[in-house]
Amino acid sequence: MITDKEFTLRLIRQLSQALEKLILDKPEESLMQKELDFDSLMRDIFKMSFTEISSKTKEDLIGIVNERQERDHKDYHEMLGNLFYFKGKSQHNNDFLDKAKTFYELYLQTSGIFALPIINRINEIKKALE
């Protein structure tokens, strides 16, 4: 039997992977690729819409993530980084890009992974925010 926490974590990972493919411009034919409904996905994950999530400060979002189990933080950080990066690039929104940078940096810290694509995105965001 799958628990709510396991379902949410699986959803976070699927969303992160789908966003990664969109960011790399390698969309795949799957249910999530056809139409990512960010509001319903955010409601499933955070119990609030994307609009509500995106209006929160970085500190508020970090607090929300910190309320989750520590072992899951890296997944939340990666997903939020991908989400804000994708939305920031598509909407030319520097606030979203700044949030993406923060969550990508947190992802690198919490995962312990050397992820060159993430490091490259952080550098790209820094240049865009100058």
Average residue pLDDT: 87
Question: What overall geometry do the principal axes of the alpha carbons give?
Answer: globular
Radius of gyration: 14 Å
Order of helices and strands: HHHHHHHH
Distance between the termini: 49 Å
* Coarse structural class: mainly alpha
Helix content: over 70%
The tally of beta strands, per DSSP, is 0
Could you name the key traits of this structure?
76% helix, 130 residues, globular, mainly alpha
Write the layout of secondary structure elements.
Blueprint: H1 4-23, H2 31-34, H3 38-46, H4 50-55, H5 58-66, H6 73-91, H7 94-111, H8 116-129
Short description:
The protein has helices spanning 4-23, 31-34, 38-46, 50-55, 58-66, 73-91, 94-111, 116-129. It has 130 residues and is mainly α. Helix 7 runs antiparallel to helix 8.
Could you describe the 3D structure shown?
The chain is mainly alpha-helical and 130 residues long. The chain contains eight helices and no strands. It has helices at 4-23, 31-34, 38-46, 50-55, 58-66, 73-91, 94-111, 116-129. Helix 6 runs antiparallel to helix 7 and helix 7 packs antiparallel against helix 8 (116-129). The mean pLDDT is 87.
